[in-house]
UniProtKB/TrEMBL annotation:
Belongs to the nucleoporin Nup133 family. This is Nuclear pore complex protein. InterPro entries: Nucleoporin_Nup133/Nup155_N (IPR014908), Nup133-like (IPR037624), WD40/YVTN_repeat-like_dom_sf (IPR015943). It is found in: Nucleus. GO terms for cellular component: nuclear pore outer ring.
Amino acid sequence: MFSPPAKKSTLSARKNAAVQRDGNSTPLAENRRPPIDSPAVPNRPATGTPAPWASRLSVLARIPPVKRSDRGDEVDAVQPVYVGEFPQVVRDAQIMSLQNHVSADASSSGGMDKETSLAWMICGNRLFVWNFLSPAASRECTVLDLPSTTSEDGDMGKSSFQINTWLVSVVNWDSSKRTASKVVKRSSSVGIVMCNKKTRTLIFWPDIYSASRMSPVTCVGFSESEASYLRQNGKGISSKQRKNDKLVNNFTKSYLINSLIASAIPAATNSCIAFACSSNGVLWRFLCSPSGIECQIEHRMSDIFSQGIDSSPLVASKGYPRSLIWHSFSRSSDEPTRQFLLLTNNEIQCFEVKLASQFDVSKLWSHEIVGTDGDLGIQKDLAGQKKIWPLDLDVDNDGKVITILIAIFCKDRVTSSSYTEYSLLTMQFKSGVDISKPIGEKILEKKAPIQVIIPKARVEDEEFLFSMRLKVGGKPAGSAIILSGDGTATVSHYWRNSTRLYQFDLPYDAGKVLDASVFPSSDDNEDGAWAVLTEKAGVWAIPERAVLLGGVEPPERSLSRKGSSNDGSLQEERRNFSVAGNIAPRRASSEAWDAGDRQRAGLTGVARRSPQDEESEALLSQLFHDFLMSGQVDGVLDKLKNSRAFEREGEINVFTRTSKSIVDTLAKHWTTTRGPEIALSVVSTQLVEKQQKHQKFLQFLALSKCHEELCSRQRQSLQIIMEHGEKLAGMIQLRELQNTISHANASGPDSYYGSETRTSGALWDLIQFVGEKARRNTVLLMDRDNAEVFYSKVSDLEEVFHCLERQLDYVISGDMPIHLQFQRACQLSEACVTIFRAAMQYRSQHHLWYPPPEGLTPWYSKIIVWSGLWSLATFMLQLLNEINRVDDSARSNFYSNLEVLSEVLLESYSNAITAKVERKEDHRTLLEEYWKRRDTLLDSLYRQVKNFVQAKLPDSTEENEEQGKDIMMTLSSNLLSIAKRHEGYQTMWSICCDLDDSELLRSLMHESMGPKGGFSCFVFEQLYESKQLSKLMRLGEEFQDELAMFLKQHPDLLWLHEVFLHQFSSASETLHAISLSKDDKSISAVEEIDGSRVSRCSLTLAKRKHFLNLAKISAAAGKNTGYELKMKRIEADKNILQVQEEMLRLIPDNEEKQSIEQRLLPPVDLIELCLKIQNRELSLRAFDLFAWTSASFLRNNTSLLEECWRNAANQDDWQSLHQRSITEGWSDETTLEVLKETILFQASSKCYGPYAETFDGKFEEVLPLRQESSEHPNLKDTSSSVESVLMQHKDFPDAGKLMLTSIVLGSIWGNSTADCGPIGMDYDGASPME
């Protein structure tokens, strides 16, 4: 490509001795052309290397032996990777062109399309189109004949820099259907628009894949005088402008078409709109359809055009506008508008085109990149600057960053030498700007300072500069590739604060570089490595690692096709770069699986591994090799310990890496030229050989004691090593399954795509997808077949399940016949089950080799696996709706496959949850997902079983019912086993109910025990909810502990079970709790057991008293220690309950009474209600309530107790009694008899009399009777007493003596036969009613 100034060699000086020019002049283009040594072989290089189309059996054969030295790792790591040969028809056409002595310029057009992964090449008068990602063995090529009217105009002259004389734009009609997934699958419909740069001939193929391909539509030599002048910036063209157009018509033939883009029109079939820009400042618009091509001038750069006319006739040297690209920000393919960018000599312009109606084009914005403001782009008119050329631009995938390639012609004022500076200008949209509808004048801003690629390159003429093209988007992230007209490609990457350049350079002549693209990556929103299309050597890739390791800082070496002038220093720089970056380069061959492209952490795709790791791995490999040769392991453990081989864990452990290299070895004798069927015939043997070697490796670990060390120090590493064996066993079984399916397909009529080969079916397509993904992620494997890569890369077997999650719609298309969808789904299910069972069998056979499993998640229980399994299972569940459209055998087979797939999926979930629990991680979300999907699968499977039974026995006779049960038992046996294993209790219950098999139910209840009751608890719940309480209690006879655990949530039945178990004390506690429960409990259970069927109702006071009586009886029957106190407490609660009943008799019928009848009132509410009713009897009952409660209740409600004494004093007319005592002159006996009838006397007798009885404390401790007795130790902080309460009464000034006499006499004149006196004085517990 471009090169910095360098001292010319002696040979070069002799060759150019006749050409005298100073340092300021521009070199002639002719001096850059390679000499033609042989007239028979055009463009042969001076090296005299063999013809590039000689037979190639592998990529390694193309690398000269001189580069395969002992330090070949360092060299190979920076070499490009051979991806694939041209299709044979292309190679034949090239040979034919060579034999016919066709000029090289006439056959040097080619290119690549990123969206469709199509490559194209023109040889002679034919256009060849093929998918460059397809393996060679399955590569198809479409050949299109160019119309005879497209021959080149001889007046245009020839240029050594114009490689591609044709511009080609590929239109993918299926783009709207493929946006959801990056699937490498040939588009079913593709159109092509191509334009000759020189002759301005436009050709349009509506559909190149159509069986009845139509002839192309052509527009030969379009010119301004022939175009439709419909609009120019939205205005009509004036007659004066048309006159000026005629003045320049003589120069039209010298103008070149610089760029071409095309886009499908959503509303039209196989129709597109295309834009082209020419070097005379004209923007062309073409409407292409199968019926014809309409050509219009859409926009004119009038300032540039007029400048050329006024100054000189060499207007073509202006060369602008340069580039057209679609602005591909995130958008729907069905949107009616698209934006495109146009690069002029000083700015970027953005246009919007409507893809419907009149296809109007409007200018949205423009941004000056070459001007006086350096903050907006490139500042011009600086010292030393002579001219600035914007050469090309490109946009990243998100459409947010625009990169422009800039060339600046400069002159050093000190030395008077001229040079060219190449740089990259990156612009981004300002924050807050809506890319889809940008508004405002300043839309863009600099993303970063200008990145200078080469500060002082040699001077080139404009023709060479304008041949340069820019591409962005490949790896490493942020890199760009620059293509030049002399056929070179250079990758520029800014890394570690410096720009590094990597020149694409093949071992020997490959012709010129025609185009470059980016390999699509399987990862979302990411691109892969750079892909390069050469003129004679096929397609090559530039790995990310090669750019990082092989890039050099300019101008350390020349970037021209002549190579480096100091190769030794280059090698030294690479070695220093490798050591400084802590990067261990590996051989860049197809066997280097872990070459760095798959890695995301660390150095942008390069795996960080220390030299110590490399040495340890090399030592381990050598020791293992010695073991294979001699069987000796003496001193192995010590040597590996000394090399620190046991310090890394996981994937980077040296033992893990060695195990992976064993199972992932790529067969050297497998070549894609042998065809897939022949190649697959040796797969089984290769896999068995890998298995034997892996087993030898395990023996080596055991004999050398390394296994013990790994088991104790690196459990995860040992787990991965054993999982390699599992995956290898699974791959072997998968290969056998594929062989069986292939033979079945070959002998049967079933092939959706019409293929006659054995390489067909869903499993084969899945293998192709997984292999394709591995090839795309590791460009070192691009020369291998998909199936070869799949069967070789054993350690990535889980990618099968990842592909099922992402690409299932492409493996089983909805367009396929329904019976074929069922068949392919069964194939995929069988493949998944085969892998899983093979892994489980390997684990069972080698269980002694495994480390302790606690906290380790098996590979088949990771999210990537069960997500893929669930995707397939979901699809199969959807197919169940169409199962009636297939025959009985297909139904049965489909059900069986779905059943075993469900078992595998649930087992995968179960292992993952177990590992999370052992690691003490949060597993609730995963557990809920597992439950939900388990129930979905099992319910669907059981419904299908019932449908099978119903289909076989449509009549519901008694004989058929018995036969139906037998059939259901047979069909549901496996399902029942799965449900039992994964606690699918609903399915187990449904099967038992439909079979009406109580023995089976009891058997499952015994087998499915759990910490929370297991299946038994579920059965009890079902019986309880369905009111089958008799059955529930009878099951308790056999499952006593389980029912007792369940009935803890249902105490209305628990006491019955406790009575059955003779746990009378427990039954008494339960009954006591039920009777005093504040929330309503149903007692319908008791009544239903007795045979009556009454509706549920709330507990009434009578029912609560009934439960209290039962509790008292149960306590007496139990006779446990302290049962007397329990009986007294129950009796006290009965008395409190009786007070509430008495209140109800005194309260008139109203809403309040109804509310009291429906609930149990606490003692405080009862006491307050007694005070509210103002009844003499209830006034005394308030003191009884205090006496039937606890001491704590008394202490906490002292004020309420005082209020009760005030209420008691108010029940009698003390003023009247005082007047009578004076008037009648009462004696002591009369006074006593009269006072005994007062409420104060009776209350004092209840609370302070000689027969006063209370629970847990006395009234004296809370409220003493007399003021002088308030010296009780518990009442030091209060002066309250009954006397002080009475002193506040209104009659106390006159009848105070009589009132005090009443309470004093009551306290000493007790009546043991007082009605409703409290009992059970010795109970020291709190009342449950409180």
